[in-house]
Amino acid sequence: MNILISNDDGVFAPGILAAKQAVEDLGNVYVVAPDKNNSSVGRRLTLFKHLKLTNCKLEDGSKAYSVSGSPADAVVVGADYVMDVKPDLVITGINQGVNISCDITSSGTVCAALEAVSLGIPAIAASLFMDPKTSFKQDENGEWYVDYDFTLAKKVLHELVLKIIEKGFPEGVDLFNLNVPSNYESEDVMITHLSHKMLDKKVIDSTDEEKHEIFNYPLDENQENEDLIMITSDLVKEYEKGSDGYALMAEKRPSLTPLSADMTYKDLKDW
Asked: Is pTM, for the whole model, over 0.85?
């Protein structure tokens, strides 16, 4: 099996190395990813503009390629240019963050997988939901750092790819959206549907007292007389049973959502 791995966090993000390590014993693995973080860019493509393709090495010394573009760009470049043969599977991730609900259309991780599907390649988008209570820690000097524990995510991803090798994708499924909690109570994967939404969004300005600390940054001289605003978001806390958010937040177990690129609703006979 020929596997292309990409992401939206950038080629040197720890999650892409974890994804490679999870499946490198299952086939020929190629890594092509953006040269820098491209979170929340959706399926943006760079058409008819130059892109820089650079050879690089991951932390384990293995070969990879960086692309000066979006996650979707990286998938196209990897599948159509870097690889000599068309990949049998594209894996995007492991994303450092959660990608659930109908908000996945803004996700660079999921939309890179959708780009693969548009090329006729089945895909998996994988994400690690980092629990704020356990993933963010302080060292002996009081400095904060993020504890990226990909152990369960790597295990589930490996088992999923192994099952795909043995059985193929289910009929009508183009991609799987996998989310694994870092602070889990069960390793059993729950097959889920998309939640209604993941984020409550709010537009604030510098007068917002509740979120003033994240708006407090120096202004350029030419901005002093402008009305500056910012879109902020909070993670939704309640989800319906059977949804991806419910699996992650309520049951604290991995969520696997089968998706189809055809978003057409076909039955309008009573409309």
From this structure: yes
